[in-house]
Amino acid sequence: MVVRRPPQAATNTTITSAQTFNAHTKKGTRNVIESGGVGDDDDDVLTNLVEPLWPEDLKHLPYTFNRVSAEESIKMSREFYDKMNERRTIRFFSPDPVPREVIENIIKVAGTAPSGAHTEPWTFVAVCDPEVKQQIRAVVEMEEETNYAKRMGNQWVKDLKFLRTDCVKEYLTMAPWLLLVFKQTYGMLPDGRKRNHYYHEISTAIAGGILLCAIQTAGLATLTSTPLNCGPAIRGILQRPPNEKLLLLMPVGYPAPDATVPDLTRKPLEELMVTV
Amino acid sequence: MVVRRPPQAATNTTITSAQTFNAHTKKGTRNVIESGGVGDDDDDVLTNLVEPLWPEDLKHLPYTFNRVSAEESIKMSREFYDKMNERRTIRFFSPDPVPREVIENIIKVAGTAPSGAHTEPWTFVAVCDPEVKQQIRAVVEMEEETNYAKRMGNQWVKDLKFLRTDCVKEYLTMAPWLLLVFKQTYGMLPDGRKRNHYYHEISTAIAGGILLCAIQTAGLATLTSTPLNCGPAIRGILQRPPNEKLLLLMPVGYPAPDATVPDLTRKPLEELMVTV
C-alpha cells in the first residue's frame, strides 16, 4: 500500500474554518500528551481549539497485507537481526562521499514512523556543506568542554571512560553528511496559531530508531549523539524555527578503514525479554 | 561483527570495589542526562559514585565493515523504504498465532539499539497468556474512559476523531502477542544502590523504532500505543520492579482479513528534509 499525502494536508490549506475557543486545557492541568511527554520548559499547553489536521470524516480503506508463512517469517526476522547486530556506533569516519539519493531514501524511511494523532512532528536536516559542518563542530566542542569539566559530574565522566572520547569531535567534519533530527514541539498554522504535537519527543525518537535501521540497511555507519546544550546554537546556524528542537545529531558515512570500536557486548535475550 | 556480552557484565559481578562518595550531582543541578531526559517526577539524581558498568580500560578492536558500492547502497535503501512504507498502524488483528521464535528475534533486534553509556535501559515483556492480556485490556479500557472524558481535552478528542477509536480495545485480547516496552529509569546494583541510566527514555524510544522495523521486516503488524496513566497498574500485573516504567504497548500479529486503515498520507520528502 503506497501512502500518499494529499496536497491540501501538506500545505495546511484544510484549515479554513478555524475558530478560537476556550479549551479546558490549562497550564495547571498539562499532562504528558499535551507537553509531548518531555517536560521541556517551554512546552506550551495550547489553549485555543483549532481544526484538526485530518478531517473528522476521513475515509477508512481496506488494508492490503501480503501474509508470509511462519517459516518465512522466522527466516526474515533472523536475517534482519544478523544485519542489525552488525551495527556499531562509529567515531572514526572516512571522508568518502555518500550519494545524496541514499540520504534522501533513509530520511524517507524515517518519515514512515508513527506519531501521536499522525502529526509527524519532525524535521531532518542533512548537512553536507563543509563550512556548516565546521560551525556545528565548533559549537559541539565548546559545549563538550563545559560538559566534561562541569555539567556532567564525576559519575558520567567515569561511566563514559571506556569509550575513550573527549571534547575533540573530528567525525563532525570528517563524515560526508551530518543528519540533525529535530522534534517539532508544536505545529504552526498559517494564521500563526499553534497546534498540539502530541508525544513529539517519543515519536521523533522512534523515527530516529527507524532512521538507524535505514542507515544500517543502506550499508552506512553512524554515531547516535544527543548534543547536550548545543540545540539553540545549532538551530541558529541552520536557521530552524523556534518550534524545532534538536534531539539527535548523527554523522553518516563509511567507517574509516582503521576505525575501532570498544569491545562491548549486548544483553543476551534472557536479560532483554520476559515472557508471560 | 558478532557482539557478545561477557558473563561478568551480564550478571553485574564486575562491581567488586564499589565505594560511596559524595558526587557533585545534587537535586538542584539535575539535568537532562541525569534524569534521562524525560522530566519524570521520580527520576532520582543518584548521589553516590559507583563503579562504571564497563571497565575504564576496556579494549578497543578494529571494526570489520563490508562496504558496498554506491549503486548497491541506493538499491538497498530504496527497497527498505518500499518495505517500511507499507507499514500502517493496525487496530484490527487476526487471532492467528505467531511463532515464539519470531517474537524472540524481533526483541533481539530491538536490543541492538544504542543507549547512553551503553546502559541498555530497557526491558521487553512479551505477553501471550490470554488471562494476562484480558487484565491489561481491562486496565487500558478503564483509563481510556477517563482519558476521553476528562484528561485529554476537547482538542485531543477532536484531533483523534479521524481514527474512529474509542475506549474499547479489542485488539489487546485479539492479537496473539502484546509487547510491552519498559524503560529502566535507573539500574540496580547487587548491593541495592542505584546506577544512572542516561537518556533512558530517548534510548528506549529509539529501541522501539528499531522494534517497529523488525516487526515489519518479519511480515507482522502492530499498533504503537502509549497507554496514558496505565503504567503502574500494568507494571503490577506483570510484576515488574519499580525502576521500570511502561513506555509503549504494542499488540503484534497479523491484520484481520477485513482490517481497515484511515486514508492517511505521509509528508513528502520536501517537507521532511532540509539540505544544507
Automatic annotation (TrEMBL), chains A, B:
Entry-linked InterPro entries: Nitroreductase (IPR029479), Nitroreductase-like (IPR000415), Nitroreductase/BluB (IPR050627)
For this protein, what is any one GO molecular function term? ribonucleotide binding
Give the record's GO CC terms. plasma membrane
Record CDD domains: iodotyrosine_dehalogenase
Where is each Nitroreductase domain found? 86-254
Q: Which organism is it from?
A: Cherax quadricarinatus
Q: Which UniProt keywords apply?
A: Flavoprotein, FMN, Oxidoreductase
User: By what name is this protein known?
Assistant: Nitroreductase domain-containing protein
UniProt-listed GO biological process terms: tyrosine metabolic process
Its required cofactor(s), as named, are:
FMN
Family that this chain belongs to: Belongs to the nitroreductase family.
